[in-house]
């Protein structure tokens, strides 16, 4: 038996913020706005894990209204989500994800992101796939107004 979950997230790009994608800080003149570090990819992966385990969504476990999560390191939230999944007797098998971002280019950082996510998930890097796409200059991604991320995760009983 294996269980599959989907995750989606988006954040607005703004000045005077750091751009953190999958736990890796990417040099850029703008970053992502949000209550935590606004790591759009980590948030999508968390929702995919929680979804596969039937544990609801990121907002129910790490609410914006909770001061504990202000400027939180989302990789730490991901590690908490992995522990919750394990608490259900489940173990991540693989994660596949796509980052939708017009600029900057994700490719120079893709290996570092993969390694960071794999470590947090307790997976070999081959089991964590990170893809990138642009918005083709249309929509909020294409106009550079924000960044979105999609993820799927599968789990198996431990
Ligand atoms: Zn988010």
Categorize the overall geometry. Answer: globular
Name the helicity range.
25-40%
Give me the strand/helix succession.
Answer: EEEEHHHEHEHE
Chain-averaged pLDDT: 96
Q: Please give the alpha-carbon distance between the first and last residues.
A: 11 Å
Low-confidence stretches: none
Strand order of the largest sheet: 4-1-7-5-6
Tell me the major beta sheet.
5 strands, mixed
Name the hetero compounds present. Answer: zinc ion
- The proportion of strand residues reads 25-35%
Figure out the total of helices: 5
Q: Write down how many β-strands occur, each being a DSSP E stretch of 2 or more residues.
A: 7
Keywords:
single chain; 158 residues; alpha+beta; 5-stranded mixed beta sheet; two-stranded antiparallel ribbon; 5 helices; 7 strands; 30% helix; globular; binds zinc ion
Report a brief summary of the structure.
The chain has 158 residues and is an alpha+beta fold.
Describe the protein.
Strand 5, helix 4 and strand 6 form a beta-alpha-beta unit. The protein is about 30% helix and about 30% strand. It has about 160 residues and is of the alpha+beta class. The strands form 2 sheets. It has a 5-stranded mixed β-sheet. The chain binds zinc ion. The site of zinc ion (ZN) has 5 residues, from strand 1 and helix 1. Zinc ion (ZN) binds near residues 9, 11, 34, 40 and 43.
């Amino acid at each position: 038996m294996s269980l599959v979950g989907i995750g989606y997230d988006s954040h607005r790009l703004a000045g005077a913020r750091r751009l953190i994608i999958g736990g890796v800080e990417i040099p850029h003149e703008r970053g992502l706005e949000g209550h935590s570090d606004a790591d759009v990819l980590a948030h999508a992966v968390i929702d995919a894990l929680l979804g596969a385990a039937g544990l609801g969504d990121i907002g129910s476990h790490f609410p914006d209204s909770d001061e504990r999560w202000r400027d939180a390191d989302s990789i730490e939230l991901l590690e908490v989500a992995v522990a919750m999944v394990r608490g259900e007797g489940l173990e991540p098998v693989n994660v596949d994800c796509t980052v939708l971002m017009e600029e900057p280019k994700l490719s120079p950082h893709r290996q570092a992101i993969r390694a960071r996510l794999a470590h947090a998930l307790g997976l070999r890097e081959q089991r964590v796939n990170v893809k990138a796409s642009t918005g083709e200059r249309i929509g909020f991604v294409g106009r550079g107004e924000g960044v979105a991320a999609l993820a799927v995760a599968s789990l198996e009983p431990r």
